[in-house]
Design goal:
Elements: H1 5-10, E1 18-21, E2 25-29, E3 39-43, H2 55-75, E4 80-84, E5 100-105, H3 124-131
């Protein structure tokens, strides 16, 4: 099996502009150049997405996400951060190695906060019945 691009970055086979690294995670600038400061945070362990990840991997990943997001606000002059993640191709995942996008934000930057959706097709009651994890 051919390794994914993020595994190659972790191994140093492909260069990246590192922002943070520890034993379990890596954060680096996204090469898309779509938004200034667009960062990625990935686990060094290869897992396809959040749904496939074990608890420890998620724990380490989210610790790093928080650390890097706080750095953006505390040390780099940003006021907030958007955190984005897609799981599976139907949700827009295009690199099949778990990753979190961090988009540093400032008031008036004219970036959208969330995608615009066209509206729900089912009632809240129907969706609650489908999605609840609580015993009724």
């Amino acid at each position: 099996m051919e390794e994914c691009i993020f595994c190659q970055i972790i191994k140093g086979e492909i260069p990246c502009m590192k922002i943070y690294e520890d034993e379990h995670t890596l954060s680096f600038l996204d090469i898309a150049k779509d938004v200034d400061g667009h960062l990625l945070v990935i686990p060094k362990k290869h897992v396809t997405n959040l749904l496939d990840a074990d608890e420890n991997t998620v724990h380490h990943l989210m610790d790093t996400v928080k650390k890097v997001a706080n750095h953006c606000v505390s040390d780099c002059g940003y006021e907030g951060v958007n955190m984005l993640n897609a799981n599976h191709q139907c949700a827009g995942q295009s690199v099949f190695h778990l990753h979190i996008h961090l988009i540093p934000r400032k008031t008036g930057d004219a970036l959208p906060g969330f995608p615009k959706y066209s509206g729900a097709q089912h009632s809240l009651e129907e969706m609650h019945a489908r999605l609840t994890m609580l015993k009724q």
